[in-house]
Every structure is written in structure tokens, then in C-alpha cells.
Amino acid sequence: MFGDQSLVGQGGEYLLERLQKRGLPEPRLAVVLGSGLGGACPDLEGVLEVSCAAVPGWPAGGVPGHEGKLRFGSRGGVGLAVQMGRLHYYEGLDMEEVTFPVRLLAALGVRSIFMSNAAGALNPAYDRGVLMLVRDHINLMGVNPLRGVRNVEGEPAFLDLSNLYDTETGDRLVERAQLSRWPLAEGVLVAVSGPSYETGAELRFMRL
Fold it and tell me: Whole-model pTM?
């Protein structure tokens, strides 16, 4: 187990009750919209919108550009959840709090998640504002969000992350971008803790 799963359960019950009252399907796919991307929320059928602050167990936090809302509905017959805004480690939250939304979405039935964020580029060939498909990541945050996760036997779980980012889905996104003539870069995300920006030496190190 990881942290207080009862809080996830309480939040899940709160949301499931509202989904059932509206006759909406449980979500199977989730989209997390990061900084400044709230306006990119896809059109959904039968929309239910909930303030994150109203969900039991949802940690207090939030920064400008993150609306702090959950939107549920369906698209193409598939239940979809859209998280508009994220929680950040640099706000002073711990990893159990930062990962609460993802654990909550998983408890609701989500099995695939599309995440977005705004980040600086280490590759000088990338123009400002370009979209990049994350193929993998390097964790330089000094903390692992999976610390404390245990398997069903109660032992520490060592999870295989070698295929964390689904290759087939990534390839399909690249194909769609090419067909749409939509510029899409590909690369590796370097995760750092913030809240400061990196020093020149750190940036040179990351480019190695």
C-alpha cells in the first residue's frame, strides 16, 4: 500500500456517486492538462464538472494557470476524465499528495493516462512553444514517487518502468501528427524538483 488509501477511497466514492446520478460511465482514459492548457479540454458528451477542492482527500494546492477542476464525460463511447491543472512537488507537497490525483483516477477505473506540462527545452533546435512527445524520462528530483508502494504480500514493490511510455500509442501520435502536418518533436523528459530554474552547469550536465 502507499500512504492512506482510505482517502483515495473516500474521494472515489464521492465522484462515483455523482457519475452514477448523471448516468455517466466510469472513466477508462484520463487527460491531465498542465500549465496554460485548460482551454485544450476536449469536447465531451454529458459533462460533469467538479472542483478538485470539493473531492475528499484532495490536497490543498494549486498555482496560476491550473484551474483545479475535474471534468467527466464520454467521447466515442469511452468514459473520459479530464484533470484541469496539477499539483506540484515544488509547492511544498510531498509525493503522496502529488500523486493523489493519479491514484484516485486509477481507483475510478482509469487504465491509460495522457499527461501534459509546460517545460523548457534542452535541445536548441526546438522552437519555443513546440509540442514534444515524451518517450522516456530521467528522474533527478531526489525522490521517487513510488517509494512506499508495496505488493499484495506487503513487501516493497520493484516496478518495471522500462516500457512506462506506451510505444505503440506514441507511434500512433507521431503518425497522426504527420498526417495533420502538425509539428511534433520527440524526446526525453528530465524531471527536477524546482522551484528554482536550473543553473548553467546543471543545464550543461543534462545535455550530456
Answer: 0.87
**Are the C-beta atoms of 9 and 107 separated by less than 8 Å?**
yes
* Residue 130 lies in domain: 119-207
Alpha helices (H) in 33-180, listed in sequence order: 95-98, 100-108, 167-179
Give the count of domains, the chain: 2
Does residue 138 share a domain with residue 167? yes
pLDDT for 56-97, tens place per residue?
A: 999 987 777 677 899 999 988 899 999 988 889 999 999 999
- The predicted-structure confidence for 137-195, as pLDDT tens digits, reads as follows 999 999 998 888 877 787 778 888 988 899 999 999 999 999 999 999 999 999 999 89
User: Which cell goes with 86?
Assistant: 496539477
Both 97 and 152 in a single domain? no
Residues 181 and 110 in one domain: no
Q: Which residues pair with 51 in a beta bridge?
A: 69
Name the packing angle between helices 100-108 and 5-21 (round to 10°). 50
Distances in whole angstroms, Cα of residue 4 to Cα of each of 104, 120, 148: 12, 34, 11
29 Cβ contact partners less than 8 Å away, ≥ 6 residues apart? 78, 79, 80, 81, 110, 111, 112, 113, 114
